[in-house]
Structures are given as C-alpha cells and as structure tokens.
Structures
1.
Amino acid sequence: MDHNKPNLKQRRKYLRNHLTPAEATLWKFLKSKQVNNLKFRRQHSVDHYILDFYCPELKLAIELDGDFHFYNQESDIKRDQYLRNLGITILRFENRMVFEHLDVIIREIKEVNNRTL
C-alpha cells in the first residue's frame, strides 16, 4: 500500500488549505489526538485516492460526502471496496451529520477503536 505519493502532494496540500465547512468543523475535533488519543491526518492519500481523514493506527478512513457524492456513488463503491481490500475501514457520513449529529460520528470512531483493542 503506497501512502502519500509525491505526485499527489500538491493536490493534498490544496485540499488541506481549502477544506469544506464540514471538513473544517470535524477537523477541530479530530486534530491533536482529541478523540481517544488517536492521530488523524487530513487529506491523506492511499495509492491514487485522497481520503478526507485517516487514522493510521486503526487503518480508519473517514469520508464526508457532499452533493457531489450523490451523483458519484458508483465511483465511491469501487473506491471503498479497493480500500477495504487493503484492510482499511471506511466511515462515510453526509456533511450535514457533522453539524447535526457530531456526537454520532465521534461515537462511531470510538466504536472502531474499541473493536481493534
């Protein structure tokens, strides 16, 4: 599994500097090991895919979906299957969940962490 390929560096940097409002809000809660002392990375690439958030310790990807994803579900299914084949767990949430039910997102992250202990 190839992480953070150099050819994607500029794209990852651009995405980190231009987070969506939902990504920026979730990042406030994930950064600095605030959830179960877990380290998360923003806009982390695995092979040719760039993940919104990634926790290497748990091999956990968190993806936030806006309107674009509703039209691109087939691509998301292929991507998720590819990542699962690499042993990565994917939690996928609609952007609105960050604003309306952040507690659910945090709880699901903690549940993944508890399953890996």
2.
Amino acid sequence: MIVVSARARVKPEAREKAMEAARNMREASRAEPGCQEYNFWFAFDDENELLVFEVWDDQAALDAHFATPHLAEFAQAIPTFVDGMPTITRYVVESAGPMGA
C-alpha cells in the first residue's frame, strides 16, 4: 500500500478556487482503480493550510494516477491558488489495520 500526504499554503483570496479544484480532483481520483482513499482538508488551526491524504493499493495504481488528465489539470491549477511549493511525502506501508489489533 502507498500512502501520500501533502500540505500547501493556500492564498486566502484563492481559497474558494482551491476548494473547487480539490473537490473535482477528489471525485475523479476516487473513481480510479486502486484508489482506496483520497481526501482534502483544511487545518483546523489554519484555514489556509490545505492537507491531502491518499491511499493507493500499490505503486502501479499511483503511477496510473500520475498519468490521468485530471491530475495534469490539477497540477496546472495549483500555482494559481497556493503560496509556494506543496510538501509531499510518500509512504510505503507493509501492513495496516485497526489500532490495538
């Protein structure tokens, strides 16, 4: 399993535009084979910090995601609503399950 987390500072004047782009990206990505989870949030202590959390079956599913038109469109839009470069981290997870199990 591959987990991707990201964060970016959204320009306050572009917050609504960022939310619309995130909604579209989430909807299209969740329909992809191998996508287990794809979510965006704003940090509760900073309304302009956008957080992303993705879970993919494997690297092949993530690679296929990188080749989608909706990702290309989203990547092109990002500079219009973020201030600086997003921070993106990829994790390879060997196993996952409920806490305490």
